[in-house]
Structures are given as C-alpha cells and as structure tokens.
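Bit of a strange request maybe. I'm writing a small parser for structure token strings and I need a real example to test against, not something I typed by hand. Could someone generate the tokens for this chain?
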Amino acid sequence: MAERSMHLPDAVTGAIVLASGLFVAIEAWNMPRFEERDINPWTIPGIMPGFVGVTLSVLGFLLLARAIVGLLLSTRERPADLSTPGEEEAETAPVLIGTPALAFCVVSGLAFVTLIGHVPFIPLAFVFLLTFMAVFEARSLARSGRKFARSLWIVFYAGAAAVLISLLFRDVFLVQLP
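Reply from user aminoacidic:
Good idea to test on real output. This should exercise your parser:
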C-alpha cells in the first residue's frame, strides 16, 4: 500500500530532476570551448557540468518512467488474501519519512563535510554511505526473508562505492581527496 503512494512523488521528483539535468546539460553545452586557444577538448570548462547534466537527465528520466509504470500498474488491486511473508513485521520497522528524514540527511551531511580532512576519505565515505543505506532500507530489510544476505550486500555496496568514488576523483577528475 505504501509503495503505491510513492509513485506520484517519484513522478514529480523524476520530472524535476530530468528538467534540471537538461537545463545543466544545455548550459554546459553553451559554455565557451576556447577552440581558438587550441586547448585539449577534455579540459573545456563545460565538460564536467555536461556529464553531470546528462547523468541527471538519464536518472530523472528513469525515475519518471518507473513512477509512471508504477502508477499505471497500481490501478490493479492486490487480493486481500495474498500477503507477503513478514509484511506485518515490515510495517513496524523504523522508517524515516518527512521531517525526520530531512533532519537525518542534514545532520549526517554536515557531519560528513565537517569530518573531511580529519578522517581519511574512504572510511568516512564508507560509514556515511552505510548509514544512509541502512537507515533508508530498514523497512525493505525487515520485509526481506534473507536479512543477513541483504545486510552483507549493503556493506559491500557501501564499501565498493566509497572506493570507486575515491578512484574516480583521484584518477579521472585529478582531485586529491584527504
């Protein structure tokens, strides 16, 4: 039931992210390229904003498409006698919605920014990502029949993302992270 109620907000968010991404990509395309200075095309000012804009556009489109499909499919009612195992337990799992979720995001984001430079980046990013994934996946994790396996995947994803983000910034963007 709660899953259906998220399709409309997801559609609105997807449309906003798609529009924002398109705006950023178009503006990045319009930035000066300094062709008259005969510089390397990978160093032009609009390359990074262009990548971000295209990525936002693709992800916004995917979210919007998923929400629209979900809205169309949610018109079919699920019979009352077909319940998912563990559904009662999942309904009581802690979940952050609205103001508590916003407060959690702000506090953890500020803690992350404050600790950069004092704690090595990879462990800091790992803890930050792991905390986010665990908190916002709590209900899904409680619903799952394989809690331990899902928990291990969350730990793996957080670790892999922390390492890949560090490598991406160091080797592609040439930014040294602490």
